[in-house]
Amino acid sequence: MKKYIFFIIISFFYYSEIIAEYQQLAGFPFVGDLNTPFSAHNGPGVVNINDDPYLEIVVSVYNYTFTVDYTGELLWSAYTPREAQPTMSFADVNNDGYLEILQVSRTGLIYILDRFGNNLDGWPKYYGSPAPFYSYMITTPVAYDLNGDGWKEIIWGDFSWNYQSYLYTVNIEGEHVGGFPFPVEPGITGTPAIGDVNNDGSVEIVCMGYYDLYVINKDGDVLYGWPKQPFSGDANFDLTSPVLADLTGDGFLEIIVAASSNDFMSGIPSGLIVYTYDGEILDGWPQNAEDIMYCPVTIADLDNDNSLDIICGREDIYSIGNFVYVFHNDGQPFPGSPYYSFGDVHGPIIAGNINSTPEKELIFDSSLAEASNIRGFIQGINCYGDSLVGFPLRPKGFTSSNSGIFGDLNCDGNLDITIVTEEPVNMDTLWIHVYDLEVPYDPLQIEWKTYQYDFQRLGQYHPPFSFDPPLDFSASVDSHGVNLSWEQPANEQNYAYSLFRDDELLVRTPYTNYCDSLVQSYTTYEYFVKSVYEQGFSPPTDIIEVTTNSISVDPEMPVAVISSAYPNPFSTSTMLSFSLTTNLHELSQINIYNVKGQLVRTLLFSSFPNPCLGMIEVVWDGKDMNGRDVKSGMYFYKLSNNKEEIGKVLKLDD
Q: Is 266 helix (H, G, I), strand (E, B) or coil?
């Protein structure tokens, strides 16, 4: 949210030495309608949401969410009414191997869109407040598997001065879980961060109330030592978000926050605070700053000394000055910090190596625009505050809260920066700019690429990582088909895998095994697999050549089914019902899998009465192949000779 907008006429003579800037990719800038007083700030995604190698740009403005490809062409536009907010997160919430888009409307609707812009079944759902929209705020929803059952929960908070506000956690069905919703007065002001703060093997939710910082476990309990108030309660948390990083290298996560003064004119401090996992303030902190800090915090090892640095910006409604703060993790400022900024810095500040020097550079926004042609400023400095050659970029439109996003959009091997700007007077036009920074794209050189670190928006720093392929790829053959398995890369930063057979994509899956039953007997196939990351794919594994034996189920036989399960969820047993429109082979079967794709139970059709055309009802007693009760959680059932999953059931504890 922007607080102030200023316009200033800048002399072209003054900028004559740097007016020649990087070139934009063909097809950009993209020009679209805005038609809203609300900004497209912080949240556009530059991610891979389909199976091609290129990245897509996903933007939400007012009542529409749309996707643009690497050539500047509109792929789709989805109607997301009631003022869907611009900051989105991306996660595979339904375990289909593809990223979904999570966003929230200003009036309390939570949207989950698939890669084609369609709402997931049962969504959007309403969790709003009776507060009027102009006094109501909702944070970006994020997704994480809090309880380890293989399914991500969705976490967000809302804010209202007049009505009760909450931190929410719901499952994929939209149902509240654990001890949530958790009441917070007067509400949540920033995107929650998710991480194992106290190194106990279970993740926590770190969220900012306006007055208090909370650390809450998956059951909705506040950890000992929390909540905390900034600067003894004289400051507040407003329009920024907590971030997490192991600053001291002890295995515990520190919590880094920016706080703003309630009355900076009276000398009450604003600044940066670093808390340890148990609520203590880390030695060397807090560090004060003048005026207001609405800029999200950035974490990076800027000077390559193997210790993390903390970066943040501030604003000043009265002047232009030194608004970019850079600290070592012990609270010592970098020489010359704070650094000069042409205008307020609302962030997010992104960090990466974009030139030939070994240190990382900082790219950030400005609250100023040139009045004569409405061109904004994207500023670039090195870690010592010196301006970069080719900066500031001068995109058309207002850049505040839109510092840019790193990635190789067109997959040409060069690093690009994507910037979304807007027409600040009439609020009727939006521009998407993509500049080629003319340096090789190397993910190991990108430390902080977007708001809240990456597109999951979980707020936890991870060391840069390459797009590594899966490990230990192997295959075996039995009468049911080809069984393939692999291990997750050591970086653990991918979210899915693309499995190929004979150079054709066979399946996209979040799991590390797959049975290819659609094969012919005595036939040779070649397989390889790639890891899928937010912004691209790994190289393939080595090819495995497999020759099948006799396959007992004919994969070419068509089967049409309509299925259901009742009760669902269940505690002891459930009836799986199938309405068959074609005859089944006598050896056909129902396979039941857990969320990891592991086979739990096989129910043979040969044991069922009259396995042919008509209705079949099969009871699953909730036991595995060894007769043991399965754990509570989600399970899938499918026909062994039908490649599509046809149902899912939820097993509950007795």
A: helix
Q: Which of 272, 269, 408 is nearest to 327 (CA)?
A: 272
Q: Are strands 6-8 and 368-370 parallel, antiparallel or unpaired?
A: parallel
Cα torsion 441, 447, 448, 454 to 10°: value is 80
Q: Which residues contact 91 (CB under 8 A, 6 or more apart)?
A: 99, 100, 102, 142, 143, 144, 152, 456, 495
Whole-angstrom distance, CA of residue 49 vs CA of residue 301: 29
CA distance 244 to 298: 10
* CA atoms of 347 and 364, how far apart (whole Å): 6
Q: Are 526 and 545 in contact (CB under 8 A)?
A: yes
What is the side-by-side order of every strand in the sheet holding 633-639?
599-604, 589-594, 633-639, 647-651
* Residue 338: cis peptide before it, omega within 30 degrees of 0: yes
**317-322 long-range CB contacts below 8 Å, 24 or more apart?**
317/3, 317/4, 317/291, 317/344, 320/368
Distance of CA 172 to the CA centre of its chain: 16
- CA separation for the pair 197, 206 (Å, rounded): 9
Strands 589-594 and 599-604: antiparallel
CB 435 within 8 A of CB 29: no
Amino acid in position 389 = V
Check residue 14 and give its pLDDT: 39
Q: Supply the DSSP string of 557-589, one letter for each residue.
A: S---EEEEEESSSBSS-EEEEEEESSPPPTT-E
E strands in 94-152: 100-104, 109-113, 125-126, 136-138, 142-144
pLDDT averaged per 10 residues, the chain (length 654) = 36 39 95 69 87 96 92 95 85 95 91 95 89 79 94 95 94 94 95 97 96 97 96 88 97 96 72 97 95 93 97 86 96 97 93 94 93 90 96 93 95 97 83 96 97 97 97 92 94 96 94 88 96 98 94 47 64 70 52 76 58 60 82 73 50 55
Q: What is the DSSP letter of 178?
A: T
Q: Is 491 in a helix, a strand, or coil?
A: coil
Q: How many residues does the chain have?
A: 654
| Residue 230, helix vs strand vs coil | helix
